[in-house]
Design brief:
Blueprint: H1 11-23, H2 28-39, H3 43-61, H4 75-86, H5 88-94
Helix pairs in contact: 1-2, 1-3, 1-4, 2-3, 3-4, 4-5
Length: 102
Amino acid sequence: MTVALPPGRTVAEVVEVVIQAALSGIGDAETERRLSAEFGLSADDAALARDRAFGGLVRAGTRIPENCPSPVKDPVAWESFQRGTRDPALVSRIYPQMFPGS
């Protein structure tokens, strides 16, 4: 569940693009287009990156440490899990119905 990034680009940057797009109300298709344009990802890799970033946030929202994704097998989900764990309000802002007032 990894995507190849160009030299000098990081998983944290990918997660930041996904999170900022979600907070701005940008839809999935546009987010994926941004990922493709900014990171040179294929359409499939952009969709995977977006999906895994959201998956990590949902896991963080459970507040169960054992739900932490593997940083090796799923680095995008791991990074977003770390962000959501450090800032539970972030998860609530993106998923208010699932995690109100986290």
